[in-house]
Design brief:
This protein is mainly alpha-helical and 84 residues long. Helix content is 76%, strand content 0%. 2% of the residues are buried.
């Protein structure tokens, strides 16, 4: 689980770096309206992907904390539903 969190963190860093590079390219191409607009659109989608990855990482961290960091009274079996 910790390895997966590390992988997700790396993916987030790379995705955000890609979005940053796309924004810089769009700024450099500002005089070419169509090209800059397409790059900005791609950068926006890339930022959304980074946010989705952050959400996945947060959920995984929560699951890790529930399974490994909380006391025995707070632990649930992996397949158990809340309230059961």
């Amino acid at each position: 689980m910790l390895d997966l969190m590390d992988v997700l963190t790396g993916d987030i860093i790379r995705t955000e770096a890609t979005a940053d590079a796309l924004v810089e390219a769009a700024v450099a191409l500002a005089e070419h309206q169509r090209g800059a607009e397409a790059i900005r659109d791609t950068a926006a989608r890339t930022r959304v992907k980074a946010m989705e990855l952050r959400g996945q990482l947060a959920a995984l961290r929560e699951q890790h904390a529930t399974l490994f960091l909380s006391g025995p009274e707070n632990r649930r079996s992996p397949g158990a539903r809340r309230g059961e």
